[in-house]
Specification:
4 copies of one chain form a homotetramer.
Chain A (H helix, E strand, L loop, with lengths): L3 E7 L14 H17 L4 H6 L2 E2 L2 E8 L8 E11 L3 E10 L5 E10 L1 E2 L8 H4 L1 H8 L14
Antiparallel strand pairs in A: 1-4, 2-7, 3-6, 4-5, 5-6
Protein backbone atom coordinates (compact mmCIF):
# COMPACT_ATOMS: atom_id res chain seq x y z
CA UNK A 1 0.00 0.00 0.00
CA UNK A 2 1.13 3.52 -0.63
CA UNK A 3 2.64 5.60 -3.39
CA UNK A 4 4.89 2.73 -4.44
CA UNK A 5 3.61 -0.81 -4.54
CA UNK A 6 5.83 -3.84 -4.96
CA UNK A 7 4.47 -6.72 -6.93
CA UNK A 8 6.41 -9.96 -6.90
CA UNK A 9 5.97 -13.12 -8.90
CA UNK A 10 7.90 -15.88 -10.56
CA UNK A 11 8.65 -16.13 -14.26
CA UNK A 12 6.60 -18.82 -15.95
CA UNK A 13 8.02 -21.32 -18.38
CA UNK A 14 5.60 -20.31 -21.13
CA UNK A 15 6.81 -16.71 -20.86
CA UNK A 16 10.20 -17.64 -22.28
CA UNK A 17 11.01 -17.84 -25.97
CA UNK A 18 13.58 -19.71 -28.00
CA UNK A 19 16.29 -17.20 -27.07
CA UNK A 20 15.98 -18.75 -23.61
CA UNK A 21 14.81 -15.49 -22.05
CA UNK A 22 11.44 -13.98 -21.20
CA UNK A 23 9.76 -12.68 -24.34
CA UNK A 24 9.70 -8.88 -24.26
CA UNK A 25 5.91 -8.70 -24.66
CA UNK A 26 5.44 -10.30 -21.25
CA UNK A 27 6.93 -7.32 -19.43
CA UNK A 28 4.00 -5.32 -20.76
CA UNK A 29 1.72 -7.89 -19.14
CA UNK A 30 3.64 -7.76 -15.87
CA UNK A 31 3.13 -4.02 -15.86
CA UNK A 32 -0.61 -4.63 -16.06
CA UNK A 33 -0.48 -7.15 -13.22
CA UNK A 34 1.47 -4.67 -11.08
CA UNK A 35 -0.85 -1.77 -11.94
CA UNK A 36 -3.90 -3.79 -10.93
CA UNK A 37 -2.15 -4.76 -7.70
CA UNK A 38 -1.35 -1.09 -7.07
CA UNK A 39 -5.02 -0.24 -7.35
CA UNK A 40 -6.13 -3.20 -5.25
CA UNK A 41 -3.69 -2.54 -2.42
CA UNK A 42 -4.70 1.09 -2.35
CA UNK A 43 -8.40 0.37 -2.17
CA UNK A 44 -9.28 1.37 -5.72
CA UNK A 45 -9.96 -2.09 -7.13
CA UNK A 46 -10.10 -2.27 -10.87
CA UNK A 47 -12.97 -4.77 -10.62
CA UNK A 48 -14.97 -2.14 -8.74
CA UNK A 49 -14.08 0.50 -11.32
CA UNK A 50 -15.49 -1.73 -14.05
CA UNK A 51 -18.60 -2.46 -11.99
CA UNK A 52 -19.17 1.29 -11.88
CA UNK A 53 -19.22 1.28 -15.66
CA UNK A 54 -15.77 2.72 -16.30
CA UNK A 55 -12.86 1.19 -18.21
CA UNK A 56 -9.27 2.41 -18.02
CA UNK A 57 -7.72 1.29 -21.32
CA UNK A 58 -4.09 1.77 -22.21
CA UNK A 59 -3.39 4.70 -24.55
CA UNK A 60 0.34 4.14 -24.71
CA UNK A 61 3.03 1.91 -23.35
CA UNK A 62 6.81 1.81 -23.41
CA UNK A 63 9.47 -0.43 -21.97
CA UNK A 64 13.26 -0.33 -21.97
CA UNK A 65 15.00 -3.64 -21.38
CA UNK A 66 18.24 -3.62 -19.35
CA UNK A 67 18.84 -7.28 -18.56
CA UNK A 68 17.16 -10.53 -19.50
CA UNK A 69 14.85 -12.40 -17.16
CA UNK A 70 14.95 -16.19 -17.16
CA UNK A 71 12.70 -19.08 -16.24
CA UNK A 72 12.93 -19.67 -12.51
CA UNK A 73 13.67 -16.02 -11.72
CA UNK A 74 11.45 -14.03 -9.45
CA UNK A 75 10.69 -10.50 -10.60
CA UNK A 76 9.79 -7.55 -8.43
CA UNK A 77 7.85 -4.80 -10.10
CA UNK A 78 7.80 -1.40 -8.37
CA UNK A 79 4.89 0.62 -9.64
CA UNK A 80 4.05 4.28 -9.06
CA UNK A 81 1.28 6.54 -10.28
CA UNK A 82 2.89 9.46 -12.11
CA UNK A 83 -0.22 11.47 -12.85
CA UNK A 84 -3.96 11.18 -12.45
CA UNK A 85 -6.43 13.72 -13.77
CA UNK A 86 -10.11 13.46 -14.44
CA UNK A 87 -9.31 12.39 -17.97
CA UNK A 88 -6.02 10.49 -17.83
CA UNK A 89 -3.57 8.59 -15.66
CA UNK A 90 0.01 7.43 -16.08
CA UNK A 91 2.03 4.79 -14.25
CA UNK A 92 5.74 4.04 -14.16
CA UNK A 93 7.34 0.68 -13.48
CA UNK A 94 10.75 -0.57 -12.50
CA UNK A 95 11.26 -4.31 -12.80
CA UNK A 96 14.00 -6.03 -10.82
CA UNK A 97 15.41 -9.47 -10.35
CA UNK A 98 14.07 -10.08 -6.85
CA UNK A 99 17.13 -12.09 -5.81
CA UNK A 100 20.01 -10.07 -7.18
CA UNK A 101 18.27 -6.71 -7.08
CA UNK A 102 19.42 -5.96 -10.62
CA UNK A 103 17.24 -3.72 -12.73
CA UNK A 104 15.65 -5.70 -15.56
CA UNK A 105 13.46 -3.13 -17.23
CA UNK A 106 11.73 0.20 -16.88
CA UNK A 107 8.36 1.04 -18.32
CA UNK A 108 5.51 3.49 -18.47
CA UNK A 109 1.87 3.28 -19.37
CA UNK A 110 -0.69 5.92 -20.16
CA UNK A 111 -4.45 5.48 -19.69
CA UNK A 112 -7.73 7.23 -20.18
CA UNK A 113 -11.11 6.78 -18.52
CA UNK A 114 -14.00 5.70 -20.73
CA UNK A 115 -17.59 4.55 -20.31
CA UNK A 116 -17.85 0.78 -20.55
CA UNK A 117 -20.94 0.93 -22.76
CA UNK A 118 -20.26 3.81 -25.10
CA UNK A 119 -16.44 3.73 -24.93
CA UNK A 120 -16.60 7.57 -24.76
CA UNK A 121 -14.33 9.53 -22.42
CA UNK A 122 -15.64 10.15 -18.93
CA UNK A 123 -14.45 12.39 -16.13
CA UNK A 124 -13.09 10.18 -13.37
CA UNK A 125 -13.72 12.91 -10.81
CA UNK A 126 -17.43 12.58 -11.39
CA UNK A 127 -17.81 8.95 -12.33
CA UNK A 128 -15.34 7.52 -9.79
CA UNK A 129 -15.09 10.15 -7.07
CA UNK A 130 -13.78 7.79 -4.39
CA UNK A 131 -11.29 5.98 -6.59
CA UNK A 132 -10.22 9.27 -8.08
CA UNK A 133 -9.57 10.81 -4.65
CA UNK A 134 -7.65 7.72 -3.57
CA UNK A 135 -5.50 7.64 -6.68
CA UNK A 136 -4.89 11.38 -6.92
CA UNK A 137 -3.51 11.34 -3.38
CA UNK A 138 -0.96 8.71 -4.42
CA UNK A 139 0.56 10.55 -7.36
CA UNK A 140 4.34 10.53 -7.10
CA UNK A 141 6.91 13.27 -7.72
CA UNK A 142 5.00 16.42 -7.19
CA UNK A 143 2.37 15.82 -9.83
CA UNK A 144 -0.98 16.47 -8.22
CA UNK A 145 -3.47 15.03 -10.60
CA UNK A 146 -4.44 18.45 -11.81
CA UNK A 147 -2.52 18.80 -15.02
CA UNK A 148 -5.43 18.58 -17.42
CA UNK A 149 -7.75 20.84 -15.46
CA UNK A 150 -6.61 24.15 -16.86
CA UNK B 1 -15.21 -24.46 -47.60
CA UNK B 2 -16.78 -27.79 -46.92
CA UNK B 3 -16.68 -30.55 -44.33
CA UNK B 4 -12.94 -30.15 -43.92
CA UNK B 5 -11.32 -26.75 -43.86
CA UNK B 6 -7.60 -26.18 -44.09
CA UNK B 7 -6.16 -23.33 -42.14
CA UNK B 8 -2.55 -22.38 -42.76
CA UNK B 9 -0.27 -19.96 -40.97
CA UNK B 10 3.30 -19.48 -39.88
CA UNK B 11 4.65 -20.10 -36.41
CA UNK B 12 5.42 -16.86 -34.58
CA UNK B 13 8.60 -16.28 -32.65
CA UNK B 14 6.71 -15.51 -29.44
CA UNK B 15 4.98 -18.89 -29.65
CA UNK B 16 8.22 -20.70 -28.94
CA UNK B 17 9.59 -21.41 -25.48
CA UNK B 18 13.05 -22.02 -24.10
CA UNK B 19 12.98 -25.63 -25.30
CA UNK B 20 13.25 -24.06 -28.75
CA UNK B 21 9.87 -25.44 -29.83
CA UNK B 22 6.33 -24.10 -29.95
CA UNK B 23 4.82 -24.07 -26.47
CA UNK B 24 2.11 -26.71 -26.24
CA UNK B 25 -0.58 -24.23 -25.17
CA UNK B 26 -0.39 -22.51 -28.54
CA UNK B 27 -1.75 -25.53 -30.37
CA UNK B 28 -4.96 -25.00 -28.38
CA UNK B 29 -5.03 -21.46 -29.77
CA UNK B 30 -4.37 -22.64 -33.30
CA UNK B 31 -7.36 -24.94 -32.93
CA UNK B 32 -9.48 -21.91 -32.11
CA UNK B 33 -8.14 -20.01 -35.11
CA UNK B 34 -8.91 -22.96 -37.37
CA UNK B 35 -12.39 -23.46 -35.88
CA UNK B 36 -13.27 -19.82 -36.48
CA UNK B 37 -11.96 -20.12 -40.04
CA UNK B 38 -14.09 -23.26 -40.51
CA UNK B 39 -17.18 -21.31 -39.52
CA UNK B 40 -16.26 -18.27 -41.62
CA UNK B 41 -15.54 -20.24 -44.77
CA UNK B 42 -18.79 -22.11 -44.39
CA UNK B 43 -20.88 -18.99 -43.94
CA UNK B 44 -21.56 -19.35 -40.23
CA UNK B 45 -19.34 -16.53 -38.99
CA UNK B 46 -18.63 -16.56 -35.33
CA UNK B 47 -18.92 -12.75 -35.24
CA UNK B 48 -22.48 -13.08 -36.53
CA UNK B 49 -23.24 -15.76 -33.96
CA UNK B 50 -22.16 -13.39 -31.21
CA UNK B 51 -24.17 -10.55 -32.71
CA UNK B 52 -27.21 -12.81 -32.43
CA UNK B 53 -26.55 -13.05 -28.71
CA UNK B 54 -25.06 -16.53 -28.58
CA UNK B 55 -21.63 -17.62 -27.35
CA UNK B 56 -20.03 -20.99 -28.09
CA UNK B 57 -17.57 -21.52 -25.23
CA UNK B 58 -15.25 -24.47 -24.97
CA UNK B 59 -16.38 -27.22 -22.60
CA UNK B 60 -13.39 -29.45 -23.13
CA UNK B 61 -10.23 -29.65 -25.12
CA UNK B 62 -7.52 -32.22 -25.76
CA UNK B 63 -4.39 -32.39 -27.81
CA UNK B 64 -1.83 -35.10 -28.50
CA UNK B 65 1.59 -33.93 -29.63
CA UNK B 66 3.45 -36.06 -32.21
CA UNK B 67 6.27 -33.83 -33.36
CA UNK B 68 7.55 -30.41 -32.39
CA UNK B 69 6.85 -27.29 -34.41
CA UNK B 70 9.56 -24.68 -34.72
CA UNK B 71 9.87 -20.98 -35.44
CA UNK B 72 9.78 -20.45 -39.18
CA UNK B 73 7.60 -23.50 -39.81
CA UNK B 74 4.25 -23.20 -41.49
CA UNK B 75 1.46 -25.25 -39.94
CA UNK B 76 -1.62 -26.56 -41.69
CA UNK B 77 -4.60 -27.29 -39.49
CA UNK B 78 -7.31 -29.53 -40.92
CA UNK B 79 -10.51 -29.03 -38.99
CA UNK B 80 -13.75 -31.00 -39.12
CA UNK B 81 -17.03 -30.75 -37.28
CA UNK B 82 -17.61 -34.07 -35.53
CA UNK B 83 -21.05 -33.38 -34.10
CA UNK B 84 -23.51 -30.54 -33.84
CA UNK B 85 -26.75 -30.71 -31.92
CA UNK B 86 -28.99 -27.99 -30.60
CA UNK B 87 -27.02 -28.04 -27.38
CA UNK B 88 -23.48 -28.98 -28.25
CA UNK B 89 -20.83 -29.20 -30.95
CA UNK B 90 -17.47 -30.91 -31.28
CA UNK B 91 -14.57 -30.32 -33.64
CA UNK B 92 -11.50 -32.37 -34.45
CA UNK B 93 -8.16 -31.06 -35.66
CA UNK B 94 -5.10 -32.48 -37.36
CA UNK B 95 -2.10 -30.22 -37.42
CA UNK B 96 0.66 -30.77 -39.99
CA UNK B 97 3.95 -29.26 -40.97
CA UNK B 98 2.84 -27.63 -44.20
CA UNK B 99 6.15 -28.27 -45.92
CA UNK B 100 6.99 -31.83 -44.94
CA UNK B 101 3.41 -33.00 -44.47
CA UNK B 102 4.33 -34.59 -41.15
CA UNK B 103 1.63 -34.80 -38.52
CA UNK B 104 2.43 -32.50 -35.61
CA UNK B 105 -0.58 -32.92 -33.38
CA UNK B 106 -4.18 -34.05 -33.16
CA UNK B 107 -6.83 -32.39 -31.08
CA UNK B 108 -10.50 -32.16 -30.22
CA UNK B 109 -12.69 -29.51 -28.71
CA UNK B 110 -16.19 -29.64 -27.26
CA UNK B 111 -18.54 -26.68 -27.10
CA UNK B 112 -21.95 -25.64 -25.89
CA UNK B 113 -24.28 -22.84 -26.94
CA UNK B 114 -25.12 -20.21 -24.33
CA UNK B 115 -26.86 -16.86 -24.19
CA UNK B 116 -24.36 -14.02 -24.19
CA UNK B 117 -26.19 -12.12 -21.46
CA UNK B 118 -27.33 -14.83 -19.07
CA UNK B 119 -24.67 -17.42 -19.93
CA UNK B 120 -27.49 -20.01 -19.77
CA UNK B 121 -27.72 -22.83 -22.33
CA UNK B 122 -29.69 -22.10 -25.47
CA UNK B 123 -30.95 -24.29 -28.26
CA UNK B 124 -28.96 -23.48 -31.37
CA UNK B 125 -31.76 -24.79 -33.57
CA UNK B 126 -34.01 -22.02 -32.36
CA UNK B 127 -31.55 -19.22 -31.68
CA UNK B 128 -29.30 -19.78 -34.69
CA UNK B 129 -31.47 -21.63 -37.21
CA UNK B 130 -29.40 -20.68 -40.25
CA UNK B 131 -26.02 -21.29 -38.68
CA UNK B 132 -27.30 -24.48 -37.15
CA UNK B 133 -28.54 -25.78 -40.50
CA UNK B 134 -25.26 -24.85 -42.14
CA UNK B 135 -23.15 -26.52 -39.49
CA UNK B 136 -25.30 -29.62 -39.06
CA UNK B 137 -24.94 -30.31 -42.79
CA UNK B 138 -21.17 -30.31 -42.44
CA UNK B 139 -20.87 -32.89 -39.69
CA UNK B 140 -18.31 -35.51 -40.62
CA UNK B 141 -18.38 -39.27 -40.25
CA UNK B 142 -22.03 -40.09 -40.19
CA UNK B 143 -22.93 -38.07 -37.14
CA UNK B 144 -25.99 -36.08 -38.04
CA UNK B 145 -26.23 -33.50 -35.35
CA UNK B 146 -29.09 -35.30 -33.70
CA UNK B 147 -27.43 -37.16 -30.90
CA UNK B 148 -28.77 -35.10 -28.01
CA UNK B 149 -32.33 -34.85 -29.29
CA UNK B 150 -33.68 -38.06 -27.77
CA UNK C 1 4.97 -30.44 -0.42
CA UNK C 2 3.76 -33.97 -0.81
CA UNK C 3 1.67 -36.06 -3.15
CA UNK C 4 -0.74 -33.19 -3.72
CA UNK C 5 0.48 -29.66 -4.11
CA UNK C 6 -1.78 -26.63 -4.06
CA UNK C 7 -0.88 -23.76 -6.29
CA UNK C 8 -2.76 -20.51 -5.87
CA UNK C 9 -2.76 -17.36 -7.95
CA UNK C 10 -5.01 -14.62 -9.19
CA UNK C 11 -6.53 -14.39 -12.64
CA UNK C 12 -4.88 -11.71 -14.74
CA UNK C 13 -6.80 -9.22 -16.83
CA UNK C 14 -5.03 -10.26 -20.01
CA UNK C 15 -6.15 -13.86 -19.47
CA UNK C 16 -9.76 -12.93 -20.14
CA UNK C 17 -11.33 -12.75 -23.58
CA UNK C 18 -14.27 -10.89 -25.01
CA UNK C 19 -16.72 -13.41 -23.54
CA UNK C 20 -15.69 -11.82 -20.23
CA UNK C 21 -14.20 -15.08 -18.93
CA UNK C 22 -10.73 -16.58 -18.80
CA UNK C 23 -9.76 -17.90 -22.22
CA UNK C 24 -9.68 -21.69 -22.13
CA UNK C 25 -6.07 -21.89 -23.31
CA UNK C 26 -4.88 -20.27 -20.10
CA UNK C 27 -5.95 -23.23 -17.98
CA UNK C 28 -3.36 -25.24 -19.90
CA UNK C 29 -0.79 -22.67 -18.81
CA UNK C 30 -1.97 -22.76 -15.20
CA UNK C 31 -1.46 -26.51 -15.29
CA UNK C 32 2.16 -25.92 -16.28
CA UNK C 33 2.63 -23.38 -13.51
CA UNK C 34 1.19 -25.83 -10.98
CA UNK C 35 3.28 -28.73 -12.30
CA UNK C 36 6.46 -26.72 -11.97
CA UNK C 37 5.44 -25.72 -8.45
CA UNK C 38 4.79 -29.40 -7.64
CA UNK C 39 8.32 -30.25 -8.70
CA UNK C 40 9.85 -27.27 -6.90
CA UNK C 41 8.07 -27.91 -3.60
CA UNK C 42 9.07 -31.54 -3.73
CA UNK C 43 12.74 -30.81 -4.36
CA UNK C 44 12.83 -31.85 -8.00
CA UNK C 45 13.19 -28.40 -9.54
CA UNK C 46 12.53 -28.24 -13.21
CA UNK C 47 15.39 -25.74 -13.61
CA UNK C 48 17.74 -28.37 -12.18
CA UNK C 49 16.34 -31.02 -14.48
CA UNK C 50 17.13 -28.80 -17.47
CA UNK C 51 20.60 -28.07 -16.11
CA UNK C 52 21.16 -31.83 -16.11
CA UNK C 53 20.43 -31.84 -19.82
CA UNK C 54 16.91 -33.27 -19.72
CA UNK C 55 13.67 -31.76 -20.96
CA UNK C 56 10.19 -32.96 -20.02
CA UNK C 57 7.97 -31.86 -22.90
CA UNK C 58 4.23 -32.36 -23.00
CA UNK C 59 3.04 -35.30 -25.09
CA UNK C 60 -0.63 -34.73 -24.46
CA UNK C 61 -2.97 -32.50 -22.58
CA UNK C 62 -6.67 -32.39 -21.83
CA UNK C 63 -8.97 -30.14 -19.87
CA UNK C 64 -12.66 -30.22 -19.06
CA UNK C 65 -14.23 -26.90 -18.13
CA UNK C 66 -16.97 -26.92 -15.47
CA UNK C 67 -17.39 -23.24 -14.59
CA UNK C 68 -15.94 -20.02 -15.88
CA UNK C 69 -13.20 -18.13 -14.09
CA UNK C 70 -13.30 -14.34 -14.10
CA UNK C 71 -10.91 -11.45 -13.72
CA UNK C 72 -10.35 -10.84 -10.02
CA UNK C 73 -10.90 -14.47 -9.07
CA UNK C 74 -8.24 -16.46 -7.31
CA UNK C 75 -7.73 -19.99 -8.58
CA UNK C 76 -6.39 -22.92 -6.62
CA UNK C 77 -4.85 -25.71 -8.67
CA UNK C 78 -4.43 -29.08 -6.95
CA UNK C 79 -1.86 -31.11 -8.80
CA UNK C 80 -0.92 -34.77 -8.40
CA UNK C 81 1.53 -37.03 -10.17
CA UNK C 82 -0.43 -39.96 -11.60
CA UNK C 83 2.45 -41.99 -12.96
CA UNK C 84 6.19 -41.72 -13.37
CA UNK C 85 8.33 -44.24 -15.17
CA UNK C 86 11.76 -44.00 -16.62
CA UNK C 87 10.23 -42.94 -19.90
CA UNK C 88 7.06 -41.05 -19.08
CA UNK C 89 5.13 -39.13 -16.44
CA UNK C 90 1.53 -37.95 -16.10
CA UNK C 91 -0.04 -35.32 -13.89
CA UNK C 92 -3.65 -34.55 -13.01
CA UNK C 93 -5.07 -31.19 -12.03
CA UNK C 94 -8.19 -29.92 -10.35
CA UNK C 95 -8.75 -26.20 -10.56
CA UNK C 96 -11.01 -24.46 -8.06
CA UNK C 97 -12.28 -21.01 -7.32
CA UNK C 98 -10.24 -20.37 -4.19
CA UNK C 99 -13.01 -18.36 -2.54
CA UNK C 100 -16.12 -20.38 -3.25
CA UNK C 101 -14.39 -23.74 -3.50
CA UNK C 102 -16.27 -24.51 -6.71
CA UNK C 103 -14.58 -26.77 -9.22
CA UNK C 104 -13.65 -24.81 -12.33
CA UNK C 105 -11.86 -27.40 -14.42
CA UNK C 106 -10.08 -30.74 -14.42
CA UNK C 107 -7.11 -31.57 -16.53
CA UNK C 108 -4.36 -34.05 -17.28
CA UNK C 109 -0.98 -33.84 -18.94
CA UNK C 110 1.37 -36.51 -20.25
CA UNK C 111 5.12 -36.06 -20.57
CA UNK C 112 8.23 -37.80 -21.75
CA UNK C 113 11.89 -37.35 -20.86
CA UNK C 114 14.25 -36.30 -23.64
CA UNK C 115 17.83 -35.14 -23.99
CA UNK C 116 18.03 -31.36 -24.32
CA UNK C 117 20.58 -31.53 -27.13
CA UNK C 118 19.42 -34.45 -29.23
CA UNK C 119 15.73 -34.35 -28.27
CA UNK C 120 15.93 -38.18 -28.12
CA UNK C 121 14.20 -40.14 -25.34
CA UNK C 122 16.21 -40.72 -22.20
CA UNK C 123 15.66 -42.94 -19.21
CA UNK C 124 14.93 -40.71 -16.23
CA UNK C 125 16.07 -43.44 -13.84
CA UNK C 126 19.58 -43.12 -15.20
CA UNK C 127 19.76 -39.48 -16.20
CA UNK C 128 17.86 -38.04 -13.23
CA UNK C 129 18.21 -40.66 -10.48
CA UNK C 130 17.51 -38.27 -7.61
CA UNK C 131 14.62 -36.47 -9.24
CA UNK C 132 13.24 -39.78 -10.45
CA UNK C 133 13.35 -41.29 -6.96
CA UNK C 134 11.70 -38.19 -5.52
CA UNK C 135 8.93 -38.12 -8.09
CA UNK C 136 8.29 -41.86 -8.18
CA UNK C 137 7.70 -41.80 -4.42
CA UNK C 138 4.98 -39.18 -4.90
CA UNK C 139 2.87 -41.03 -7.43
CA UNK C 140 -0.79 -40.99 -6.37
CA UNK C 141 -3.42 -43.73 -6.40
CA UNK C 142 -1.42 -46.87 -6.22
CA UNK C 143 0.58 -46.30 -9.38
CA UNK C 144 4.17 -46.96 -8.48
CA UNK C 145 6.11 -45.54 -11.33
CA UNK C 146 6.82 -48.98 -12.67
CA UNK C 147 4.25 -49.37 -15.37
CA UNK C 148 6.59 -49.20 -18.36
CA UNK C 149 9.30 -51.40 -16.89
CA UNK C 150 7.93 -54.76 -17.94
CA UNK D 1 9.64 -6.29 -50.36
CA UNK D 2 11.33 -2.97 -50.04
CA UNK D 3 11.79 -0.20 -47.52
CA UNK D 4 8.21 -0.59 -46.32
CA UNK D 5 6.64 -3.99 -45.89
CA UNK D 6 2.96 -4.55 -45.31
CA UNK D 7 1.96 -7.39 -43.08
CA UNK D 8 -1.68 -8.34 -42.92
CA UNK D 9 -3.51 -10.73 -40.65
CA UNK D 10 -6.78 -11.22 -38.82
CA UNK D 11 -7.36 -10.58 -35.15
CA UNK D 12 -7.71 -13.80 -33.18
CA UNK D 13 -10.40 -14.35 -30.60
CA UNK D 14 -7.87 -15.11 -27.87
CA UNK D 15 -6.22 -11.74 -28.47
CA UNK D 16 -9.26 -9.92 -27.09
CA UNK D 17 -9.84 -9.19 -23.42
CA UNK D 18 -12.93 -8.56 -21.34
CA UNK D 19 -13.13 -4.95 -22.56
CA UNK D 20 -14.11 -6.56 -25.86
CA UNK D 21 -11.05 -5.19 -27.64
CA UNK D 22 -7.61 -6.54 -28.49
CA UNK D 23 -5.40 -6.54 -25.41
CA UNK D 24 -2.70 -3.90 -25.81
CA UNK D 25 0.15 -6.37 -25.30
CA UNK D 26 -0.75 -8.11 -28.55
CA UNK D 27 0.20 -5.10 -30.65
CA UNK D 28 3.75 -5.63 -29.39
CA UNK D 29 3.52 -9.18 -30.74
CA UNK D 30 2.12 -8.01 -34.07
CA UNK D 31 5.12 -5.71 -34.36
CA UNK D 32 7.37 -8.74 -33.99
CA UNK D 33 5.42 -10.67 -36.62
CA UNK D 34 5.71 -7.72 -39.00
CA UNK D 35 9.41 -7.21 -38.31
CA UNK D 36 10.14 -10.86 -39.06
CA UNK D 37 8.11 -10.59 -42.25
CA UNK D 38 10.09 -7.45 -43.19
CA UNK D 39 13.32 -9.40 -42.86
CA UNK D 40 11.96 -12.45 -44.69
CA UNK D 41 10.59 -10.51 -47.64
CA UNK D 42 13.85 -8.63 -47.97
CA UNK D 43 15.98 -11.75 -47.96
CA UNK D 44 17.44 -11.36 -44.49
CA UNK D 45 15.54 -14.19 -42.78
CA UNK D 46 15.62 -14.11 -39.04
CA UNK D 47 15.93 -17.92 -38.99
CA UNK D 48 19.13 -17.59 -41.01
CA UNK D 49 20.43 -14.89 -38.68
CA UNK D 50 19.97 -17.24 -35.74
CA UNK D 51 21.60 -20.09 -37.63
CA UNK D 52 24.63 -17.82 -38.02
CA UNK D 53 24.79 -17.57 -34.24
CA UNK D 54 23.34 -14.09 -33.83
CA UNK D 55 20.28 -12.99 -31.90
CA UNK D 56 18.53 -9.63 -32.30
CA UNK D 57 16.76 -9.07 -28.99
CA UNK D 58 14.53 -6.12 -28.24
CA UNK D 59 16.14 -3.36 -26.19
CA UNK D 60 13.10 -1.14 -26.10
CA UNK D 61 9.57 -0.95 -27.37
CA UNK D 62 6.82 1.62 -27.41
CA UNK D 63 3.29 1.78 -28.76
CA UNK D 64 0.65 4.49 -28.89
CA UNK D 65 -2.93 3.30 -29.29
CA UNK D 66 -5.29 5.42 -31.41
CA UNK D 67 -8.31 3.17 -31.92
CA UNK D 68 -9.34 -0.24 -30.67
CA UNK D 69 -9.07 -3.36 -32.77
CA UNK D 70 -11.80 -5.98 -32.48
CA UNK D 71 -12.24 -9.68 -33.08
CA UNK D 72 -12.94 -10.25 -36.75
CA UNK D 73 -10.97 -7.19 -37.85
CA UNK D 74 -8.04 -7.51 -40.20
CA UNK D 75 -4.99 -5.45 -39.32
CA UNK D 76 -2.37 -4.14 -41.69
CA UNK D 77 1.02 -3.41 -40.18
CA UNK D 78 3.36 -1.17 -42.17
CA UNK D 79 6.90 -1.67 -40.98
CA UNK D 80 10.03 0.31 -41.81
CA UNK D 81 13.62 0.07 -40.69
CA UNK D 82 14.57 3.41 -39.15
CA UNK D 83 18.24 2.73 -38.48
CA UNK D 84 20.69 -0.12 -38.73
CA UNK D 85 24.27 0.07 -37.54
CA UNK D 86 26.74 -2.64 -36.72
CA UNK D 87 25.52 -2.54 -33.15
CA UNK D 88 21.86 -1.62 -33.25
CA UNK D 89 18.71 -1.43 -35.33
CA UNK D 90 15.34 0.27 -34.94
CA UNK D 91 12.00 -0.34 -36.62
CA UNK D 92 8.83 1.71 -36.77
CA UNK D 93 5.32 0.39 -37.24
CA UNK D 94 1.97 1.81 -38.24
CA UNK D 95 -0.99 -0.47 -37.65
CA UNK D 96 -4.22 0.06 -39.57
CA UNK D 97 -7.64 -1.45 -39.81
CA UNK D 98 -7.23 -3.10 -43.19
CA UNK D 99 -10.87 -2.48 -44.17
CA UNK D 100 -11.47 1.09 -43.07
CA UNK D 101 -7.87 2.25 -43.37
CA UNK D 102 -8.06 3.87 -39.95
CA UNK D 103 -4.87 4.12 -37.95
CA UNK D 104 -5.02 1.84 -34.93
CA UNK D 105 -1.60 2.27 -33.39
CA UNK D 106 1.95 3.41 -33.95
CA UNK D 107 4.99 1.76 -32.47
CA UNK D 108 8.75 1.52 -32.42
CA UNK D 109 11.22 -1.11 -31.40
CA UNK D 110 14.96 -0.97 -30.73
CA UNK D 111 17.29 -3.93 -31.06
CA UNK D 112 20.88 -4.94 -30.59
CA UNK D 113 22.93 -7.75 -32.10
CA UNK D 114 24.33 -10.37 -29.71
CA UNK D 115 26.06 -13.72 -29.93
CA UNK D 116 23.62 -16.57 -29.37
CA UNK D 117 26.00 -18.45 -27.07
CA UNK D 118 27.61 -15.72 -25.00
CA UNK D 119 24.82 -13.12 -25.29
CA UNK D 120 27.61 -10.53 -25.76
CA UNK D 121 27.31 -7.73 -28.33
CA UNK D 122 28.55 -8.49 -31.82
CA UNK D 123 29.16 -6.30 -34.83
CA UNK D 124 26.57 -7.14 -37.45
CA UNK D 125 28.82 -5.82 -40.18
CA UNK D 126 31.29 -8.61 -39.47
CA UNK D 127 29.03 -11.40 -38.25
CA UNK D 128 26.20 -10.87 -40.71
CA UNK D 129 27.77 -9.05 -43.65
CA UNK D 130 25.10 -10.03 -46.17
CA UNK D 131 22.13 -9.40 -43.92
CA UNK D 132 23.70 -6.19 -42.74
CA UNK D 133 24.19 -4.94 -46.27
CA UNK D 134 20.64 -5.87 -47.17
CA UNK D 135 19.14 -4.18 -44.14
CA UNK D 136 21.32 -1.07 -44.21
CA UNK D 137 20.19 -0.42 -47.79
CA UNK D 138 16.57 -0.41 -46.63
CA UNK D 139 16.85 2.19 -43.90
CA UNK D 140 14.14 4.81 -44.28
CA UNK D 141 14.23 8.58 -43.97
CA UNK D 142 17.78 9.46 -44.68
CA UNK D 143 19.33 7.44 -41.90
CA UNK D 144 22.12 5.47 -43.44
CA UNK D 145 22.96 2.88 -40.90
CA UNK D 146 26.07 4.73 -39.89
CA UNK D 147 24.99 6.62 -36.83
CA UNK D 148 26.98 4.62 -34.29
CA UNK D 149 30.18 4.42 -36.29
CA UNK D 150 31.77 7.66 -35.15
Amino acid sequence: MGAEVEYIRRVYYYETDRMGIVHHSNYIRWMEEARIEFMRENGADYEVVEKKGVLIPVTGVSCTYRRSAFFGDTVRVCVRLMSCTGARAAFSYRMYDADSGELLAEGESGHCFIDSETHRPVNARRRLPEEYATLAALVSEGQEGESDRK
